[in-house]
Amino acid sequence: MTILEWVLIGIGAVLFLGGAVMMLIGFLKKKSLILFKIVPGAAALVGLVTAIVVGVGVMQSNMLTMRENYVACRLIEVESYQPAQLAAQTAFSRNPNVQSAQLAALSLALEKKYSQAEMAAERYQKRFADSTLTEIADLCKSALDGEDVQAKLLLIHKKIKAQLSLSEQERNKAESIVNIQAQVSLGETGSIQSDLQTLAGETDPLSCKAIAQGNMALGNMTATFEMLEQAALNDSSFPARAALAQLAASGVQKPTETPDTERADLEQKIAQKNQEIDQLYQKVNNQAEVNEVERQRLQKQIAELEEEVQTLYDESNSIYVKRAVNYILAQNPSSDDEMAYNLVLAQLYFRMGDMETSRTYLEKALSLSFTGDNTGYLSVEMADVLDAYDNSTKATSFDDFEVPDYDSAGTPETDQESDAVISNDPVASIQTLLWSMTQYTSYGDVAYTETIEGIEDEEDSVQTTQFSAFLLETLQDLRTGLHIGKVDTTNYPEISVSINVSKRKDDGTDYTAGDFKVFDQGKEITDFELVQSEENEQTNVCLVVDHSGSMSGDGLFQAKRAVSSFVQTAGNSMNLGLAVFDHAAQVLCPITDSKGTVQHAMDTVTADGGTNISEGLLAGMSALQGKDGNRIIVLLSDGADSSESAAQMRSVISQLNAQGIVVYAVGFDFADSSYLSGICESTGGKFLRAQTSEELASVYQTIEKFLTQDYVIRFTVKEDEQDYEREIRISLENGVFDEREYFVGVDPDKIEQEANQPPQANFFEQIGGSGKEESNP
């Protein structure tokens, strides 16, 4: 029960008891009829009705919650874990309760998503002091350490289910709901019709949503809309309203005899303008009456009218989306649903083509999710997206890097899969998020298509963008908006942290200390100094580009465009060079201040050969040799490294670090993200992923911003000075952040590595000598 419900029942009880006492006094003392009988009687009646209405509502709400939790339990039993998690999360959004929280975390744990389950349990634990949630979190930690915990998790599930008591009638309805949800999630429709008949006539939100899901799967969109509308009328929770808005935005409406006057007016205007266009074409085609000057004037009028018609078409097509936006804006979401509220609005504005507003709401949703404190609707799915993105680019330092074994085809052999499921596919996680956002009652992903006007004699082109790609691009911009480079602990306890920022301030000014928050070992540092690097300091950048055979076609074409964009926007304080590699490498253009020379060199590149990233880095290092100022390599590759190159990579990393050269890397297509990220992390650089070759230009621009907005943060450690294994986190107010582990002194892993190295006595034999075998005496 909510606080408001308790207050209303309390008020009702006070009115009833107070009225009853006053009436009793009135009868015993023969007091005034109005003051001691009629007024108290009315008050007692109002109090009784209020308490009964609120009490019945609470009972119905609790019964619905119990049925939702039972559905989640049954979905877990049939191993339909994602729908189970969504059902529990939806129940929690409508009526926050500990059982829904337990089931939401448990479903993730049984799916072996232990990291996500542990975080979910801990987030819910902040709200409920519950031993079961603590147990789930502890079991997830044990599972991540290699322990088999599935049997213990199933015992928790059995305990939760035993607490749910439903009548036979309620259980039968719940089973039909389970069957529908399980089939919809699997893309099957076998017995949906019979389950729909079982639920026919039900008006509670849970049944309405299940009926909508079934009709959606059967392609009956009108019935889907009617059921979602009924669910939204009976359920004030945000998930029910969001699902209705998403379907309405697609143009699905309930049949009505009342004409849509707004849309009819637009269609009439379109018809009138099309008629004017036809008349103008008739005049143009009448050669006898039209001279060349008049023809050009008429053609200009036609073009203007056609543009107006397109605008009217766009306005007509966006009517339903605008109505959906207004419907959502009228909602008053709880703090738990704030993240989902912003996400839904972001998608709706995207459908209208208002990318700026869409991005604003999307950044709000992502920023809220970054905190890790959300327990509301879609919080787990969004957390899964963030984890998948981070896992896809995660790498350990090359100090710990182990060269993989390669099979006969030259493909890296991965270790046997661990028991824990680690998601590293952000695209798949985003699709799951979008399907959950519509409660499986509408299509998850949506697209926006626009016509790009051709330059000069070029034809217009049509560009289609998926919301999933837009979300991933926004996420990458935020996660790469700030980068912690190297952490200097030479003068410990004084710390110097090099940071790069790719996100510009809205007002165009430089960042100040007040824009940053710094945390070391989880404790905020307020007395830090922010220093911007000298603007006139020379930056030397060698672009190292993969031109192996796999880059042929669109990959190389987009790489050339990306390099061109980078060259054109590079500032005067940035000198550039170009090296390319396949199975070998060469410097095509030494470091120069002539941007045109670099551009011309890139235009001559063709694709052929294998992949040797080590040789490419060595060529870039050679080009930067002896240059003053900052020295940067920007590496681009679309594939996995060769075994020969991987075997020498640790040595290459050591040489780069010895010369103070930082590597930024861009990967796309089949690039090994963790491998490239390892190179960057080991040199103080940053790895960025382009989902497609078309995204290369924007990723290169992000790197260009990194290189022109660099700062140093200095502070003195005053607490926990004895902790030599530390973590720093730096963030901006807009949700952009980065965090990094660092060591004071020598990294313990390095010490262990050195201990495992061959003895120094054999050093000459390992790397030097004549190369001839000694003859036996």
Describe it for me?
The protein is α+β, with helices and mostly antiparallel strands and 777 residues long. Among the domains are: 3-59; 167-237; 332-376 and 378-411 and 420-452, no CATH class; 484-742, Rossmann fold. The chain has 28 helices and 18 strands. A hairpin with a 2-residue loop joins strand 7 (516-520) and strand 8 (523-525). Helix 10 (205-218) runs antiparallel to helix 11 (221-234).
SSE order and pairing:
Blueprint: H1 3-29, H2 33-77, H3 81-94, H4 98-110, H5 114-125, H6 131-144, H7 150-162, H8 168-186, H9 192-199, H10 205-218, H11 221-234, H12 238-249, H13 261-285, H14 292-317, H15 319-329, H16 338-352, H17 355-370, H18 379-392, E1 405-406, E2 412-413, H19 426-437, E3 447-452, E4 461-466, H20 467-479, E5 482-488, E6 494-501, E7 516-520, E8 523-525, E9 529-532, E10 539-546, H21 554-569, E11 574-581, E12 585-592, H22 595-603, H23 613-624, E13 630-637, H24 643-658, E14 662-668, H25 673-683, E15 687-690, H26 696-708, E16 710-716, E17 725-732, E18 737-743, H27 748-755, H28 763-767
Parallel strand pairs: 10-11, 10-13, 13-14, 14-15
Antiparallel strand pairs: 1-2, 3-4, 5-6, 6-16, 7-8, 7-17, 9-16, 11-12, 17-18
Helix pairs in contact: 1-2, 2-3, 2-4, 2-8, 3-4, 4-5, 4-6, 4-7, 5-6, 8-9, 8-10, 9-10, 10-11, 11-12, 12-15, 12-16, 13-14, 15-16, 16-17, 17-20, 18-19, 19-20, 21-22, 21-26, 23-24
